[in-house]
Each structure stands twice: as C-alpha cells, then as structure tokens.
UniProtKB/TrEMBL annotation:
InterPro entries: Glyco_hydro_47 (IPR001382), Glycosyl_Hydrolase_47 (IPR050749)
Species for this entry: Allacma fusca
GO cellular component terms given for this protein: endoplasmic reticulum; Golgi membrane
GO molecular function: calcium ion binding; mannosyl-oligosaccharide 1,2-alpha-mannosidase activity
Protein name: Alpha-1,2-Mannosidase
Record Pfam families: Glyco_hydro_47
Signal peptide feature range: none
PANTHER family: MANNOSYL-OLIGOSACCHARIDE ALPHA-1,2-MANNOSIDASE IA-RELATED (PTHR11742:SF6), MANNOSYL-OLIGOSACCHARIDE ALPHA-1,2-MANNOSIDASE-RELATED (PTHR11742)
Length: 154
C-alpha cells in the first residue's frame, strides 16, 4: 500500500512477466502481467493523456505530480503494445498510441524532445534536452518500438 514508479513497475514487473510468458507460453505469467497492467491504468487518467509517474497499485491513487520524464513515457510502448497483442485487450495499446500522437503533435524545439512533459497541460515542462538520465530510455525504446511495429506498418 505505497506509491510506486510507473516507469520501474512497467519495465521490471510487467516487462519481466511478459518476457517469461514469451519464453514459456505459460499463461500464469501473462495473467500476472495483465493484472499488474490493470493496476497501472489509473495513472493515465490525466487531462492530457500523459500518465502520472507514481501510482499506488492497491488504491489506484496517483501522485498528482505535474511532470513525467520522456524516459518513463518511452518505456511504456513495448510492454503495453505487446500486452494488448497477447491479451486481445486494446486498452494498453490505446494508452500508448495516445502518448505517441500527443508527442507527435507537440512543437519540438529544434526537432528534439525536452526531458519532461507536463501531465496537466500536455506540453513540455522545460526546454532541457538530454540523451542522459530522464530521457535515455525514450531514445533506446524508439528503435525497439520501431522494430516491434515495422511489420504492422507495411
């Protein structure tokens, strides 16, 4: 009964269960990934569609922090798209598709993504651009996401 990081829970817990499922095809892992994914969904109940960075999975309460890092946004794509694919539940893909669309529509300084997005306004929260902490996973996952979806684009 405590708040957890959406970023860390997604990449370590949901991602771990999905990896175990992909390797074994044991529905136990898929069921657990889906259960945790369901617990994370209230984090997306924001005015902008960009999720809150912290959630209490026991209560669904979110930390109403106004910013989320690009790293946290980027790392949701692989797990949530795959979770929709293997469960047949489109809700996960819908959440990350909204993030992608929102990011696409934002004006990017010099064509680059600043490190933080305001979850209330849906705009960049600062102008700091980095490939380091706070943004690194976003860029890493861009390539992985492209690989994951390239067959769907053809």
């Amino acid at each position: 009964n405590t708040s957890v990081s959406l970023f860390e829970t997604n990449i370590r817990i949901v991602g771990g269960f999905l990896t175990a499922y992909a390797l074994t095809r044991d529905d136990l892992y898929l069921d657990q990934a889906n259960a945790v994914g369901q617990l994370l969904l209230p984090a997306f109940d924001t005015p902008s569609g960009f999720p809150y960075g912290q959630i209490n999975p026991a209560t669904g309460e979110t930390n109403r922090g106004e910013t989320i890092s690009m790293a946290a946004l980027g790392t949701l794509h692989l797990e949530f798209l795959y979770l929709s694919e293997v469960t047949g539940n489109p809700i996960y893909a819908e959440k990350v598709d909204k993030i992608r669309q929102n990011l696409w529509n934002l004006e990017k300084p010099n064509g680059l993504y600043p490190n933080k997005v305001n979850t209330q306004t849906g705009r960049f929260a600062d102008t700091h651009i980095s490939m380091g902490g706070g943004a690194d996973s976003f860029y890493e996952y861009l390539l992985k996401s492209w690989i994951q979806t390239q067959d769907q684009q053809a």
